[in-house]
Protein backbone atom coordinates (compact mmCIF):
# COMPACT_ATOMS: atom_id res chain seq x y z
CA UNK A 1 0.00 0.00 0.00
CA UNK A 2 1.42 3.32 -1.07
CA UNK A 3 -0.08 6.43 0.53
CA UNK A 4 0.60 9.77 -1.12
CA UNK A 5 0.00 12.97 0.84
CA UNK A 6 -0.56 16.26 -0.97
CA UNK A 7 0.13 19.17 1.37
CA UNK A 8 -1.45 21.58 -1.13
CA UNK A 9 -4.76 19.68 -1.21
CA UNK A 10 -7.84 21.16 0.43
CA UNK A 11 -8.57 17.76 2.00
CA UNK A 12 -7.07 17.42 5.50
CA UNK A 13 -4.12 15.05 5.74
CA UNK A 14 -5.92 12.60 8.03
CA UNK A 15 -8.72 12.34 5.44
CA UNK A 16 -6.20 11.72 2.66
CA UNK A 17 -4.72 8.85 4.69
CA UNK A 18 -8.16 7.52 5.55
CA UNK A 19 -9.45 7.74 1.97
CA UNK A 20 -6.45 5.91 0.55
CA UNK A 21 -6.61 3.09 3.11
CA UNK A 22 -10.36 2.82 2.57
CA UNK A 23 -9.83 2.64 -1.21
CA UNK A 24 -7.20 -0.10 -0.74
CA UNK A 25 -9.68 -2.10 1.35
CA UNK A 26 -12.56 -1.66 -1.10
CA UNK A 27 -10.37 -2.56 -4.09
CA UNK A 28 -9.13 -5.73 -2.40
CA UNK A 29 -5.53 -4.54 -2.18
CA UNK A 30 -5.94 -4.87 1.60
CA UNK A 31 -7.87 -7.93 2.70
CA UNK A 32 -9.71 -8.96 5.83
CA UNK A 33 -7.23 -9.56 8.64
CA UNK A 34 -4.35 -7.66 7.04
CA UNK A 35 -2.28 -5.68 9.53
CA UNK A 36 -2.01 -1.95 8.85
CA UNK A 37 1.28 -0.16 9.49
CA UNK A 38 1.67 1.05 13.07
CA UNK A 39 0.45 4.56 13.79
CA UNK A 40 3.97 5.72 14.60
CA UNK A 41 5.52 3.93 11.67
CA UNK A 42 3.05 5.37 9.18
CA UNK A 43 3.42 8.85 10.68
CA UNK A 44 7.20 8.56 10.31
CA UNK A 45 6.96 7.25 6.73
CA UNK A 46 4.57 10.04 5.70
CA UNK A 47 6.39 12.68 7.73
CA UNK A 48 3.18 13.67 9.55
CA UNK A 49 2.12 13.90 13.17
CA UNK A 50 1.25 10.75 15.10
CA UNK A 51 -1.94 12.58 16.09
CA UNK A 52 -2.90 12.92 12.41
CA UNK A 53 -2.32 9.24 11.73
CA UNK A 54 -4.19 8.23 14.91
CA UNK A 55 -7.17 10.35 13.81
CA UNK A 56 -7.24 8.59 10.43
CA UNK A 57 -7.09 5.17 12.10
CA UNK A 58 -9.79 6.11 14.61
CA UNK A 59 -12.09 7.25 11.80
CA UNK A 60 -11.46 4.05 9.84
CA UNK A 61 -12.38 2.03 12.92
CA UNK A 62 -15.49 4.14 13.56
CA UNK A 63 -16.63 3.50 9.97
CA UNK A 64 -16.09 -0.25 10.36
CA UNK A 65 -13.13 -0.60 8.01
CA UNK A 66 -10.62 -1.61 10.66
CA UNK A 67 -10.42 -3.19 14.09
CA UNK A 68 -7.90 -1.96 16.64
CA UNK A 69 -6.51 -4.63 18.95
CA UNK A 70 -4.73 -3.06 21.89
CA UNK A 71 -1.04 -3.92 21.80
CA UNK A 72 -1.33 -5.74 18.45
CA UNK A 73 -2.27 -3.00 15.98
CA UNK A 74 -5.01 -2.19 13.51
CA UNK A 75 -6.36 -4.87 11.19
CA UNK A 76 -8.70 -4.78 8.21
CA UNK A 77 -12.16 -5.70 9.47
CA UNK A 78 -14.55 -8.08 7.71
CA UNK A 79 -16.51 -6.02 5.20
CA UNK A 80 -20.25 -6.05 4.66
CA UNK A 81 -20.20 -4.77 1.08
CA UNK A 82 -23.97 -4.23 0.96
CA UNK A 83 -23.82 -2.03 4.05
CA UNK A 84 -20.82 -0.13 2.67
CA UNK A 85 -22.66 0.38 -0.63
CA UNK A 86 -25.75 1.70 1.15
CA UNK A 87 -23.63 4.04 3.27
CA UNK A 88 -21.90 5.36 0.15
CA UNK A 89 -25.21 5.87 -1.64
CA UNK A 90 -26.50 7.92 1.30
CA UNK A 91 -23.34 10.05 1.27
CA UNK A 92 -23.59 10.57 -2.50
CA UNK A 93 -27.22 11.61 -2.12
CA UNK A 94 -26.24 14.17 0.53
CA UNK A 95 -23.43 15.56 -1.61
CA UNK A 96 -25.66 15.79 -4.68
CA UNK A 97 -28.29 17.64 -2.65
CA UNK A 98 -25.60 20.10 -1.56
CA UNK A 99 -24.52 20.52 -5.19
CA UNK A 100 -28.10 21.14 -6.32
CA UNK A 101 -28.49 23.77 -3.60
CA UNK A 102 -25.16 25.32 -4.60
CA UNK A 103 -26.20 25.66 -8.25
CA UNK A 104 -29.77 26.95 -7.77
CA UNK A 105 -28.92 30.60 -7.03
CA UNK A 106 -27.14 30.95 -10.38
CA UNK A 107 -29.69 28.99 -12.40
CA UNK A 108 -27.90 25.64 -12.71
CA UNK A 109 -30.63 23.04 -13.11
CA UNK A 110 -30.80 19.34 -12.40
CA UNK A 111 -30.63 18.76 -16.16
CA UNK A 112 -27.38 20.75 -16.31
CA UNK A 113 -25.93 18.57 -13.56
CA UNK A 114 -27.07 15.39 -15.33
CA UNK A 115 -25.24 16.58 -18.45
CA UNK A 116 -22.08 17.19 -16.42
CA UNK A 117 -22.29 13.72 -14.91
CA UNK A 118 -22.85 12.15 -18.35
CA UNK A 119 -19.75 13.91 -19.68
CA UNK A 120 -17.67 12.81 -16.68
CA UNK A 121 -18.83 9.20 -17.09
CA UNK A 122 -17.88 9.19 -20.79
CA UNK A 123 -14.42 10.54 -19.93
CA UNK A 124 -13.60 7.63 -17.60
Automatic annotation (TrEMBL):
Record domain HTH gntR-type: where: 11-79
Q: Name the Gene Ontology molecular function terms of this record.
A: DNA binding; DNA-binding transcription factor activity
Superkingdom, natural source: Bacteria
Classification via PROSITE patterns:
HTH_GNTR
Q: Could you read off the lineage of the organism from its UniProt record?
A: Bacteria, Bacillati, Bacillota, Clostridia, Eubacteriales
Q: Does the keyword DNA-binding apply?
A: yes
Identify the SMART domains for this entry.
Answer: HTH_GNTR
**Alphabetical list of Pfam families matching this protein:** GntR
InterPro entries cross-referenced by the UniProt entry: Tscrpt_reg_HTH_GntR, WH-like_DNA-bd_sf, WH_DNA-bd_sf
- Recite the UniProt keywords alphabetically: DNA-binding, Transcription, Transcription regulation
Q: Does the keyword Transcription apply?
A: yes
Q: Which organism is it from?
A: Acetobacterium wieringae
Protein name (Swiss-Prot/TrEMBL): GntR family transcriptional regulator
